[in-house]
Design goal:
Structural class: alpha/beta
Oligomer: single chain
Strand content: 15-25%
Distance between the termini: 82 Å
Radius of gyration: 26 Å
Shape: elongated
Mean pLDDT: 91
Largest sheet: 6 strands, parallel
Helix content: 40-55%
Number of strands: 12
Strand order of the largest sheet: 2-1-3-4-5-11
Number of helices: 13
Length: 343
C-alpha cells in the first residue's frame, strides 16, 4: 500500500521549509512574502503527486472542521428536503460540508443528534428545534458553538433565526378566501405550542375576527398525523356542515385532507375552497391545482448559511442576535378561486 504523502514529505522533496509549504497550501503565499516561483513549484508538485491534506490535522491547526450540522424536522418532507439541498449548495461554495439529521420533531432525538454532532466537532448548527429544547440551545451558546434556528424559535432564548412571517402569511391566505366569498373557513393545524404553528393559528383567527366570522379549528397531534389525521379531518368536516373552505397549516395535513375530500366526494373549489401552507409538487399536478403559501427556500437557505458563517468567523464575546424574516408568497391556483364571488 502506497504511503500517504505529508507536508513534511513535500518540504523534504523540494528542499523548502514545512512552514512555507503550509502557507502555500493555505493560500497565504503572497501574504507571507513567498515568491510566485516557489508557490508555483509547490502547487505543481502537489498536483503531480495527488497530495490530499489530513483534515483532522488541518482542523487542529485552524480550529475548524469545515463541517456544519443541519438538523431538520423531516428530510423526506419536500419543504425541508429543498432547504437541505439549497443549504448544501450554498455551504459548499464557501468550502463547507453538511451533515444532516432528521429530528422527527422529537425533543429526545434532537438532543441526541446535537450531542452526537457536537462530539464530531462541527463548526456550527442550523436547527429546526423541537419543543422543550431551550436548555440545550442555551448550552450550545454557553459553549460558544455557533447556531442558527430555522422555521421556529424560542421567544425566551435570544438566537439568530431565519423564517417567514407566519402570522401575516396565514392572515393573507385567509383574507384571499374571504375575498373569494367563502364565509365559513375552517383551520386544520397541529396541536403544538411552537412559534410557527402558534403564529399561523393567530393569523387565521385575526383574519376571521376582522369580518366577525366564527372560527372552526381542528388540532392534530404531530405524532398521530400518519395514523389518525385522515379520520379526524373527516369527522371535523362532517361535524361542521357549514364549512365552505379549509386552510391547512402544513402541506402534509393538506395531503391527508385531499384524501378525505376525494373519499367524501366533495368538489373543490365550488363546494369547498382550499389553501395549504408550504407548497408541494402534488399541489401543482392535482386537479384542481391547489393554492399554497410558498416559502422562498433559496433565499432562506442563503440567509441561514450567511448568518452561521458570520458567527463562525466572528469571535466577539458579545454580539446582537438577528432575526431574518424572508417574505413568503401565495401561489393562487384553482382550489381557492370560487365561482361564488358576487358580481
Amino acid at each position: 500500500m502506497q504511503k500517504k504523502i505529508s507536508i513534511k514529505d513535500i518540504a523534504g522533496q523540494l528542499g523548502v521549509s514545512i512552514t512555507a509549504v503550509s502557507f502555500i497550501l493555505n493560500g497565504k503565499a503572497k501574504e507571507k512574502g513567498i515568491s510566485d516561483a516557489l508557490a508555483e513549484k509547490v502547487l505543481k508538485y502537489v498536483e503531480e503527486t495527488g497530495y490530499k491534506p489530513n483534515q483532522l490535522a488541518k482542523s487542529l491547526r485552524t480550529g475548524k472542521t469545515k463541517i456544519i450540522s443541519l438538523l431538520i424536522e423531516n428530510i423526506s418532507d419536500p419543504f425541508f428536503s429543498s432547504i437541505a439541498g439549497y443549504v448544501e449548495e450554498v455551504a459548499n461554495k464557501q468550502g463547507y460540508k453538511i451533515i444532516y439529521g432528521s429530528t422527527k420533531n422529537e425533543t429526545s432525538k434532537t438532543r441526541e443528534l446535537i450531542n452526537l454532532f457536537k462530539d464530531r466537532h462541527v463548526d456550527g448548527f442550523i436547527i429546526t428545534p423541537a419543543e422543550n429544547l431551550e436548555a440545550d440551545i442555551i448550552t450550545l451558546q454557553n459553549e460558544k458553538i455557533p447556531l442558527v434556528l430555522f422555521d421556529r424559535y424560542y421567544k425566551q432564548v435570544q438566537t439568530d433565526y431565519v423564517g417567514i412571517d407566519n402570522f401575516e402569511s396565514t392572515y393573507n391566505g385567509v383574507t384571499h378566501l374571504i375575498d373569494q366569498n367563502y364565509k365559513n373557513i375552517g383551520f386544520v393545524t397541529l396541536d403544538s405550542d411552537q412559534t410557527q404553528m402558534h403564529d399561523r393559528l393567530s393569523g387565521y383567527l385575526a383574519a376571521l375576527n376582522n369580518e366577525d366570522m366564527s372560527p372552526m379549528v381542528l388540532k392534530v397531534a404531530y405524532s398521530k398525523v400518519h395514523k389518525t389525521a385522515t379520520k379526524e379531518i373527516a369527522h371535523f368536516i362532517k361535524e361542521n356542515s357549514r364549512l365552505d373552505a379549509l386552510f391547512f397549516a402544513t402541506n402534509y395535513l393538506a395531503l391527508k385532507g385531499l384524501d378525505v375530500l376525494t373519499e367524501l366526494n366533495i368538489s373543490i373549489p365550488d363546494h369547498l375552497g382550499l389553501i395549504a401552507f408550504d407548497d408541494h409538487e402534488v399541489f401543482k399536478l392535482y386537479k384542481p391545482t391547489i393554492t399554497a403559501v410558498t416559502q422562498p427556500v433559496a433565499e432562506m437557505s442563503k440567509q441561514l448559511v450567511d448568518l452561521l458563517l458570520h458567527q463562525i468567523d466572528d469571535h466577539a464575546e458579545k454580539r446582537e442576535h438577528k432575526h431574518v424574516i424572508v417574505p413568503a408568497i401565495i401561489n393562487i391556483r384553482n382550489s381557492s378561486v370560487s365561482s361564488r364571488q358576487p358580481i
